[in-house]
Amino acid sequence: MFVRCFHIVTEIMQGDGTIAGCFSVLGGYLIHLSYGYLYSLTNMVPYIMGYLITFIDPHICVQTSVWFSAVTFAVYGIFMPLGGFLSRKIGYRPVLALSCLFLRLIKTTQIDCKISGGVLLSYFTIQKTYVGVILTYSFLFGTGVGLGFSVTLAVAATWFPEHRGLVVGLVVSGYGMGSLVFSPIQTFLINPNNVPVNNVTRQFDDPEILNRLPHVFLVIGVILSVTQIIGLILLRSKPKWNCEDDKIEILDDSGSSDCEIMDDEVKFSNCSNAVDITPSRLFRHIDFYLLWLIELCNSIPLTLLTSSYKLFGQSFISDDKYLTIIVTMTAVFNASGRILWGTIVDQFSYKIPFCIISLMWAILLLTFPYISLTDGLTAKILYCIWGIGGFLFLSSVSTVAPAAIGSMFGCTNMAINYGIIACARMRRFLWFLQESCIKGTCTIRLGNDISAFQYSSDMRQEMVIVEDSYSRTA
């Protein structure tokens, strides 16, 4: 059945370049939608921490929740260049299949099985140990996202080179929509009656709620698998026309190619003289180091928002359904913002948006912690406004950077080049580890929520300075 559907879609996509490109972008969108489950982490963390503290280890500190996001993004950054490198050597489909074989849990042919498999394995690990949950829910998940993230973007972006920013924005909008799709499902399955947190500990400790958590991993794992299968069927690389020989070269699933003579009226042929910088030459360009620093500065607030946003709100707002609704709303702005920033990059430049976004995000992060000093309806309204603003500007991280890399270094090696720059996220993980070792504990202690978010704001302000110098180098 799967093979038959794949061949039918392939025949349709070979007929017209525009239709094929749209199908491929849709496929990339669905794959990134499954990646976007990462952003529902902020909704799941309160339930996970409540389960671990209640049933596994009462001595676990709530601050350790930051490790879920830190490990995920660190591993994601490490494996991203590997995914791009392998796709160049053996083709993107074998890379997807290789990930499935590595996990050996779900019999599909895509990289994203690591994601769904990691989620499925969490059904077992959460009932045993905190470290096990980090391994399956964060490490395996981050590995799957890292291997496929830039590869999916690179494949989809080849179809519409003149609208690269928009295509990247459309695909990664699926990444931002993950929380919109999965957060309501999580809350509906775990806490359908909107039972509040414990007034003293500000954590979930109701056994009826917490006992539902392990089974949610199984349901989400199946949903992710179905989404990824459909996405893989639709995603397809664009045929490459050799301008000198008037040949069109189509990479097959094994990475090899078949060439056939085509006439000059091939509608979706595309040749350009754009510069394509190889990974080995990447380190000779000052722009690479500036982008790497920008990615590094991005990583700190990115980790805190994705891991602690709902947990922070839970400390002064007891309405779990309201918090879930706000998390869902932020996903809408996270997704639509990616399309917005992609369009702006196409129309103007990636430098000015970078500076504006960083400055506004720094202001939001600096003032966000003080919302906890309010209460009642005021606290809810301010929490909503600041959350939407934070995730709207967060959406630029995965849109402007890939578009900038494609413009400066070319599309041919975009997957590898973006992966190398994304390795800056590993530095964030080392920073968290250093903080833990200095404190002599396994938790991240920055004094309190206010100092944590203010530190993030300081990092964003440093990034504004870096980006200002970056704009002047061109």
TrEMBL record:
UniProt keyword annotation of Membrane present: yes
Membrane protein topology class: Multi-pass membrane protein
Transmembrane spans: 12-31, 66-86, 130-159, 166-185, 216-235, 288-309, 321-341, 353-373, 385-405
Compartments reported by the entry: Membrane
Record-linked Gene3D superfamilies: MFS general substrate transporter like domains (1.20.1250.20)
GO CC terms of this entry: membrane
Single GO MF descriptor: transmembrane transporter activity
Keyword Transmembrane attributed: yes
First-listed, main subcellular location of the protein, grouped into a coarse class: membrane
Keywords: Membrane, Transmembrane, Transmembrane helix, Transport
Domain of life, per lineage: Eukaryota
Pfam assignment, any one: MFS_1
PANTHER family: RIBOFLAVIN TRANSPORTER RIBJ
The protein's name: MFS domain-containing protein
Lineage, uppermost ranks: Eukaryota, Metazoa, Spiralia, Lophotrochozoa, Platyhelminthes
